[in-house]
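If your schedule permits, I should be very grateful for your opinion on a structural question. I would ask you to consider whether the tokens describe a fold that such a sequence might reasonably adopt. Thank you for your consideration; the sequence and its tokens are set out here.
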Amino acid sequence: MILFKMKKTINLLLIIITSLSGFLCLVSCSENHDIEEKISSLQSQPIKLCLDEMRCRNKYGDTIVVDSVKPLYRMVVYVDSSACSPCTLDKMYVWNESIKKARRLGSMLKHVFIVAPKPEQIEDAYLSIESNGLDSPVYVDTAYAFRKANPHLPEERMYHSFLLDEKDSVVIVGNPIENPKIDSLINVIVFK
């Protein structure tokens, strides 16, 4: 009798484990499919930067960026109004090593930082740009021109860092500062 109950319990546990495994696989496959769809959407058409419609600032205040030669690649980092723009800007100094590396190697990589703060955060965003220690200008998009020009850009923050080629097509999606695999891919493509 005890052996029969143990077999019944074990069979029930096996059914639960099998069902749970199948469910987890289904959820995981669904998540991967969702990620693939969003990346595919992002790569479906060129990105319009609209930088001429934005105010450009650096640690000294307003500035103008003049590019005599269009770079082969641009690493775009977009901070939208769903995030605390000043909070995110305060941490942008982590990009300095990547910026220095690109300059030192004389590569055709340029970093483009775009922030679209909420109206009530604009002044705080300006202060953060001036004090965050980032060695690059930041484009402040108060008219949300970047988002309007790129409706195919997914909402989730994980898709807001990407590498563009000379045709402004998305080559790689992801933040190389947070993900060493993305950094390795960029190194292979840009610094070959």
